[in-house]
Design goal:
The protein contains 6 helices and 15 strands. The protein has about 350 residues and is of the alpha+beta class. It has a 6-stranded mixed sheet, with helices on both faces. Strands 4-5-8-7-6-9 form a 6-stranded antiparallel β-barrel.
Length: about 350
C-alpha cells in the first residue's frame, strides 16, 4: 500500500510532543502551524483548537479527536528535590517505574526518570502489592528542593518521554499514538480537502479536543457552538490479537482497518440509521458490535448538545494504549483516513440541509 507521506512525517512529531491532560498547548501549536494557510484555526474559551474549512456540498460535518496523552500533575516537591505526582488521567503506576519522564509547564521542560524505593528496601506487602502513586516520584537529578526554584512548581505536569520507531508489517511504535494518530489523520484530511473547490466538499470543522482523558470533553462545548449536521468521533480500540480464542474476541485486530462501534458506555451510534448504514458500508473490513467494555470516549457526549447531533465513531486498533509504547498499524491509519475522506467529500443520500 502507498502511504500518505505528509501524514507519516507529521505523526512522529505529534507523538513526541509534550501534551499531557491539562497541558496540551505544545501539541495544539504544532497542529496549528501545520495548518497555516490551509484553513481557519482558532482556540475556543476552554482551549480546543477549532479548524474550519467551508464547503458547499450539502452537509456540515464535525470531526473530533482528543489530543491529550496520559500524564501526571506535580503535587509536591520534597526536600530532596523529588517530584511527587498524581495521575491526571488513566495513567497506570505499573508503567511508571524506570521510565524516562519529562516534567514542567508551558515555559520549560526537564528530563528525568520515574522512580520509587529500591526493591531491597521494600518490606511486607510493599513487595507484592501493585505500586501506587503515593510511593512513586520523578527524579530530575537535583539534590534539594531549592535547586528547583523558578524551574518546577506544584501544579506543573509530567508525561512519559517519547520514543518513535517502526517494526515489521507496517507497525509503528510511540507514545500517545492512540490519540495523536487520529490527530494526524484529521490534519491530512483538511490538507487534502483544501485542494478541492468549495462546491466539491462538505462544510468541514475539525475539533482537536483538550482534556479528553479526564472526561472533561472539550468537544461538548465546541459542538454546542458549531451545531453541525453530523459528527464523526475518532478514538481507539484496544487490540485483542493476543486473545487465545477468536470466538471470544471482543476487541479489534491490527491491520484490519478501523472499528465502527454500535455503542460504548456513553453513546449509541445509530440514532441516524442512514448515517450509520453509510458509515457501516464504508468501513467494510472490520465492523464489530462493541459493548460496554469498549474504550469509552468522553467526547461522545457531544451528540447530546442542542437538539442533538447524529454521531458515529471510528476506532483505531492499537496495542498498549495509554502507555509509553503504543503500537498502531499504518494500514489502519490509511483506511481510517479513507473513511473520513469519503464523508468529507461525498454528498449524503438523504439530502440533509
Amino acid at each position: 500500500m502507498k502511504f500518505h507521506e505528509d501524514l507519516f512525517e507529521l505523526l512522529p512529531k505529534l507523538s513526541l510532543a509534550f501534551g499531557p491532560t491539562g497541558c496540551e498547548k505544545r501539541v495544539l501549536d504544532l497542529i496549528k502551524t501545520g495548518l497555516d494557510g490551509v484553513c481557519d484555526c482558532t482556540f475556543d474559551a476552554v482551549g480546543n483548537l477549532i479548524c474550519r474549512l467551508p464547503g458547499e456540498k450539502g452537509t456540515s460535518y464535525a470531526f473530533i479527536s482528543g489530543v491529550d496523552e496520559v500524564g501526571f500533575m506535580i503535587t509536591k516537591i520534597d526536600d530532596k528535590g523529588y517530584l511527587r505526582v498524581e495521575s491526571t488521567s488513566s495513567g497506570d503506576p505499573a508503567c511508571f517505574l524506570g521510565k524516562k519522564m519529562v516534567a514542567g509547564g508551558d515555559a520549560q521542560l526537564f528530563e528525568g526518570v520515574g522512580a520509587a524505593k529500591v526493591l531491597h528496601t521494600l518490606k511486607g506487602n510493599e513487595r507484592t502489592d501493585a505500586p501506587e502513586f503515593e510511593r512513586l516520584f520523578i527524579d530530575l537529578g537535583f539534590e534539594k528542593k531549592e535547586e528547583l526554584e523558578n524551574k518546577i512548581e506544584v501544579g506543573d505536569f509530567a508525561a512519559f518521554k517519547g520514543d518513535y520507531f517502526e517494526m515489521p508489517h507496517d507497525h509503528i511504535v510511540g507514545k500517545a499514538l492512540e490519540c495523536r494518530a487520529n490527530c494526524a489523520i484529521l490534519v491530512t484530511l483538511l490538507k487534502l480537502a483544501s485542494k478541492l473547490k468549495k462546491e466539491e466538499r462538505n462544510d468541514l470543522t475539525v475539533i482537536f479536543a483538550v482534556k479528553e482523558k479526564i472526561g472533561f470533553s472539550g468537544a461538548v462545548t465546541a459542538l454546542h457552538r458549531l451545531a453541525p449536521d453530523r459528527a464523526v468521533l475518532l478514538g481507539f480500540e484496544p487490540s485483542c490479537d493476543l486473545d487465545e480464542k477468536d470466538a471470544d474476541r471482543k476487541g479489534a485486530l491490527l491491520g484490519k482497518g478501523p472499528v465502527l462501534p454500535l455503542k460504548d458506555g456513553r453513546a449509541l451510534y445509530y440514532d441516524d440509521p442512514v448515517f450509520f448504514e453509510r458509515a457501516k458500508n464504508a468501513c467494510g473490513s472490520q465492523f464489530t458490535q462493541i459493548l460496554d467494555g469498549s474504550q469509552t470516549l468522553s467526547s461522545s457526549r457531544a451528540h447530546l448538545v442542542l437538539a442533538g447531533v447524529p454521531m458515529i465513531s471510528l476506532r483505531l486498533p492499537c496495542h498498549n494504549p495509554e502507555t509509553p509504547y503504543v503500537i498502531v498499524n499504518k494500514t489502519d491509519i490509511e483506511r481510517t483516513l479513507s473513511k473520513v475522506w469519503s464523508l468529507a467529500v461525498f454528498a449524503d443520500d438523504d439530502g440533509r440541509r
